[in-house]
Every structure is written in structure tokens, then in C-alpha cells.
């Protein structure tokens, strides 16, 4: 999507096209050219028709087998459950989508013959997604996991149209009879990564945060991060740059570079790819990742990262479909059930800091500590969560303000 | 030494043999790729055809996918006919979507004729203005339109992003899930464009409108004075000026027309499919750039654009059907590209013949390559 991919192709086209239109002698008479366009039309028509014909002819057998296959596998009589995943990015994005696909692979490994999985990657959020999911349903998939917020409209529509198919929407907002949502409290683990970052920089230093979209989910994560930083480094701040994309390594990298040029002391990422970590590595700044364990690739600068473990949830839901006990719901996993957890610590995290983080992790898991517990002030010093209170779930889900200590605009 | 020579006249059989041959070659080349990567070619083609065109609901989805390409394809074809290289279909479509969604929101649940007409008009005007900027610069300041239209694409994309992601504008939905994720304000249900059910498939109003525009353009280019001017100015601007044609005005007018078509494509995106301004999805889709490919494949013929758009739409839909654990998206793209390149490449043999020539003769005449000279001077 970046300039690098978008620019050359039209430019190249523009250089090619004069050739194809203006090959004939410059003084070509207009009538000849007009009749040529009629000829071209017929050529184009023939091309289209023959392509269709070429596709049609010959392999009726394949057609029947395909239909048969999809027809029979639609039911679970055979004991095989068919499950499909729809991903917003490529399965090798080194982050979000890769983590989901790791979950799918885990399901395949652990359920073996009892499950048949497939996926579609880089599916745009729009009418294309609906088409892709309808095709997956045609193929007999009984449960579909869609792993991006933007699939919501398509899912709501299809859930109504196909009441027998189970739909699962990661990070989704609306559930229904056969449409469940699932996500996790990564703000808790991101708070812990904030502790690692706060301890890794000088007192009163600044962490640069490469953030995707100015939405409550991400704002919540950034706030949790800064609260973690402050817990060990009270005057340290977090500086935010929005990329307006979940996955675009080039843009992510540039955003990190701009933060580094601004003089931040560490980099944290909320993006799907680890590209900002490479920017941090180039300047030897401590790095907090997201979604993927890069402790080996970025060993020199690695602190830790908040990770999701989607596999167990996927396995549980598919097993529920298989034995007919699947029920809708809004799953919100946490540290306590292992849905969110931390990546291995890098060498920059001291033993003391590791001990602090582990202590807090246990406190969150047993419920004795909450990240968004008052008093918490926003950027203007207004008390948003009073002393003795904690943020309610609706407050968390609609958070549109930054805590004091975050530099940036929560409106994007 | 082998050399290509332009055919003075094309024998009749070539017109059938070449396209048929190139499609066959395309399928064979694809089959080689498929078997090299361990896939059954026949089965793959069968699935492509089924999911792109023949299976239940597939043709409807293909028409939906083809609609924006039809508009951006026409946008490019119209401008390129006069050798005005409007690369800005992308931005003009986005601006059309911006205008049309505002109209759709504002007109709300009025009579469907009014809302649809209003959206088309708003889309066309916004697209025309956006292209008109580059057109005026080209006509009266002799600015390179490739650069200006391309740059304006980024401006349009960022403007649309700002309207939905960066501000609480008229276009943005703030309630409901809009509080969780920035999204466009949906147009009222009454402003959804109608569609016609043909039994086996459904055709959105946008596709119908685009086809009508294509036929209209075909007639304009064939038998009107404006069409004649476009042809002459495209072939030889100086001759056109000597003949008393107002070339500057024609350039500006053609750019505006081209942009208006892309703008209606943006209106159709809002009215036919998404019902909101969705800047992220529009940028991801890149309809404007794909439209240039459509126009080139259709040899700038408006009616051929309709069929090529359908073909491309079906191919991209079917491509997603192929994808899966054993069939990565990259391989799908390679296969699609291969099919297109071979189908297009065959055209060369309809217009040129291959001839062996003496080496010194070829060296003495380097410019006389297949269409080589214009590529250098253009």
C-alpha cells in the first residue's frame, strides 16, 4: 500500500500506453482508427468468450467431484469438523495474523483427523469479505473465525442468512445467536511491558509508541502502557504516533524512525508487524513488541511483548461444534487463563525488574491488582477515575482519553 | 537476428487465431506453474471458473467486483484516447465517494430517484473537479498530468482518511460501533441503489449505469465532433491547432469527463456496495490503478472495458477461492498475472510479424523496434 508499490505501476503503464495506442503512423486517418476500434472490440469479445469456453470445456468430471466433496463435507456425519479462518493480513506478517494462524495450526495438530481447517489471507474488509465467507460456507465449513474488527457487518449479515453456521469474530463488538466474539485483556500484559520499558530508560525519559488507529482498544493499550512505565519511572512519558494501519511494515518503520528522530529513549509497538523493532535495533534503543515473540531476531534491544495465545480458544470452540454444544458468547480472556501472556524477557530487563513484573502479573491474575484503578488523571489533569474506583467495562470499551504522561492526540 | 515488423494488413484468420492462441498459451503457462507447485491444473481452472462465474451467486459477486473497475477503466480509456494520461482515477473515485456519501446522508430517505440522482451528480461533480484541477494545469500551464493526477491521488486518499479517522466530520459515524472504531456514517436505507434480479444473478444499478456510459462513450468517439477532436488532438496536437480546434479546452473537458466517470464509480461504491465512505478499504482496493490495466487490456475501447472489467472482477474473486493453506496468496497473484500477461501479449502477433533479418541491417535501424520509437519520445 505504500508509495513504493503504488507509484511505479501507473508510471510504467503511462510509458507503455503511448506505444499501444500510437503505433500506427502519426497521420493515421481517423476513419481507419474508428474501424480499428470495432475490430478490437470483436477481438476482445472473442478473447473473453474463448477464455470462458476454454474454462468450460473438458472437465465436467472435476465439477462433479468438487460439488460432491463440498456437499458431503457439509455435515459432520463423517466426524470431521470443517473450520475456516479469514485473515486481514498475510499469514507471515510476523504478528497478528501469524499468531492466529499459529492457533489454527495448533488445532490441526491436536485434533488431527477430527478437524479440517483452511484459511483465506489478506481479505479486504468489505464486500469481498462477504463473498469469501459465502464461498467458505459453500465448501462446507461449519465454523468461521474472522479475525478483524472490520468484518463485523459481513458477519452480522451472514449469521442471519446461515443460521446453521457458527461465526466467531475476534475483537468484535456485537454477538448474536450464532455469532460469538472473542478477545483478551492485553491491557494487563501491556501494562507489564510498560514496567519493562520504564525500567529500561533514564528517569523522566520518553518511550515512543507506534500505534495503529485512534480507537478505544488502542487508546486503552497505550494508557495501560504508560501506567506501567510510570509505576517504576514516575516522570517518564509516552509519545504516540498514529499510522492509521494495522499492517504496513514500511509505514510502521517510518513512524518509528520519526519518533527516534524526535529523541525518544525506547520504542514500543501496537502494530501487526515487528518493523518498528528493526528501526529500534538500527539505533540500539530498547524495544517492546506486540503480538509476536521477536526475542531472537531483535535480541540486542528486546525487552518483552504482549502475546495472545489463540490456539486453546480455537480448539475449545471447534470441539464444541463437533459435539453440538457450541454456544454464542463474548469471551474476554486474561492472564489467569493464559490467553494473554508475556514474551520471554530480553537481556535488557534486569532480574529485579523481572521480579517486579512477575509479582504484578500474579497480582493481576488473582485479581488483587487492577491496571485502571484510581486515581487516574487525563492529559489535562482532570480526574477520570477517582481514588478507590476502577474503570468499568463500558468505560474501558469506549476509552477516548489519554492518561497524564501520554503525549499525543487521542482523536488521531 | 530476429526482428518484429508491423503487419501492413491483418489477415482475417489472425483475428480469431491470435486471441484463441494467446488464451490457450496463457492457460498452458498457468498449468506449468501449477504443476510445478504441485497443483492439479484442470481442477484449479475448474474452480476458477466456478467461483468466478458459474456457481450460485458467483456472477453477482463478479459484477459487484467489476463495477468499480468498469468506471475506472472507462475513466482511463477516455483520457488515454487523447493521450492525456490520467493516472488519477484512484483519487477521482475517492472524491466521488466523498461527494456521493455526503449526498446520500443528506438526502436520506427521500424518493429513491432523487437520492440516487443526487448521489450520481455529487460523485460526478467531485470527480470532475478533482480531475479538472490536473486538466486545467495541463491545458493552460502545460504541467505533466501524470505527476499531478498521481499526486492528487494521495491528497484525495488522505483527505478521505482525515474525514473518517482524523476528525469528527459530517462523514463520520460517532454512535454505535463508531465509538469503538472510526467509520463512515451509513447512508439511509432509502438511498441504497436498486438492483435488478435476473434469476441466476443480480446486477447492481452501478454496473448497469457504467455499461450505459460505455455505450454512450463508444458512440461519442465514433460519430461525434468531440470524438473526432479527441482523436486528432491525440494523434497530432499541432495539426489540430492548425485546423482551428480548441485543444486546451478539449484537454480540460476530457479530463473533467474522465474524472466524472471515476467519480460516479465512487458514488456506486457507496450506493451499491458499502453504503458508507470507507477510505481504508478504497485505498486497499486500488480500483484506480487496476482500472488502468483494464483500459489497456481493452485497448481503450469503452465497450471492451465492460467485458474486461467482468473478467478481471471474476478473476480476482475466484483468486480468493483458490487461496488456502496449500495455495498461498502470492501464488494466486502470480497465476492471475500470468493469465493476463499472456492474453495481452498475444496481441503483438496480431499486429507484427516475426522476421529474420541480417544483423547489420537491424543495427542500422535501431528505432524501428516494436513500437519502440514512441516509447522513447513519449
Lay out the secondary structure.
The complex is a heterodimer of chains A (412) and B (378).
Chain A: H1 3-6, H2 8-21, H3 30-56, H4 60-73, E1 81-86, H5 96-111, E2 115-120, H6 127-138, E3 143-146, H7 152-161, E4 166-170, E5 179-184, H8 186-200, E6 206-211, H9 216-232, E7 237-242, H10 249-261, E8 266-269, H11 275-282, E9 287-290, E10 302-308, H12 311-322, E11 330-333, E12 340-342, H13 351-365, E13 376-377, E14 383-385, H14 393-397, E15 406-407
Helix pairs in contact in A: 5-12, 8-9, 8-13, 10-11
Chain B: E1 2-6, H1 12-36, H2 41-54, H3 58-81, H4 89-107, H5 112-141, H6 145-166, E2 172-173, E3 183-184, E4 195-197, E5 202-204, H7 205-223, H8 225-235, H9 237-242, H10 247-274, H11 279-285, H12 287-297, H13 302-322, H14 329-345, H15 347-351, E6 352-356, H16 359-364, H17 372-377
Antiparallel strand pairs in B: 1-6, 2-3, 4-5
Helix pairs in contact in B: 1-2, 1-14, 2-3, 2-13, 3-7, 3-10, 3-12, 3-13, 4-5, 4-6, 4-10, 4-12, 5-6, 5-10, 6-11, 7-8, 7-10, 7-13, 8-10, 12-13, 13-14
Radius of gyration of chain A: 26 Å
CATH superfamily grouping of the largest domain in chain A: Response regulator
- The SSE string of chain A, one letter per element, is HHHHEHEHEHEEHEHEHEHEEHEEHEEHE
Taking pLDDT < 50 over at least 5 consecutive residues as the criterion, the unreliable ranges of chain B are: 362-378
Q: Radius of gyration of chain B in whole Å, from Cα?
A: 22 Å
Give the helix/strand class of chain B: mainly alpha
Q: Biggest sheet of chain A, strands in spatial order?
A: 12-10-9-8-6-7-15
CATH architecture identity of the domain at 67-310 in chain B: Orthogonal Bundle
